[in-house]
Amino acid sequence: MIITNVQHFSDIEKIQEAEFYEFCDEYEANPDLGEDRIIIYGPLYRLRGTDLIMAEGTYCCYNEDTGELEPDFSVSLIYKSEGEPDLDSCIYWESSSIPTTFHNFVMQTQMEDAAVVLLENAVA
Questions:
Q1: Residue 75: which domain range?
Q2: How much of the chain is helix, strand and coil, in % rounded to 5?
Q3: What is the mean pLDDT of residues 59-87?
Q4: What pLDDT does 123 receive?
Q5: Do residues 35 and 53 make contact, with C-beta atoms less than 8 angstroms apart?
Q6: Which of 77, 78, 57, 84 minimizes the C-alpha distance to 2?
Q7: Which residues contact 91 (CB under 8 A, 6 or more apart)?
Q8: What is the pTM of this model?
Q9: Is pLDDT at 83 greater than 80 in this prediction?
């Protein structure tokens, strides 16, 4: 599992353009989704000054007829962890980009240290 430290959300775009991004492992997560899953791909991003980790993935619906997972939509997830996160235990996820997901998370939780990071990114 690759965890990359980022200072600004713009750093994530630079990492996504790097060659190693394509060679990262995929992980299957199930944050209380029943038979559905989220496939997490690429590196995880630890936001500077927090214990928050962001990830990107694809929500996959379980097809009862075929017994397979079928990709449905892209998601961003937030974890709270000092080390490697338990990928089944995200604290927030939604079908938005990482910056939008983070913004909505901060607005809903009023998390003070996360709000500071959001403000720093707004000025960067």
A1: 3-123
A2: 30, 35, 30
A3: 92
A4: 43
A5: no
A6: 84
A7: 78, 79, 80, 105
A8: 0.79
A9: yes
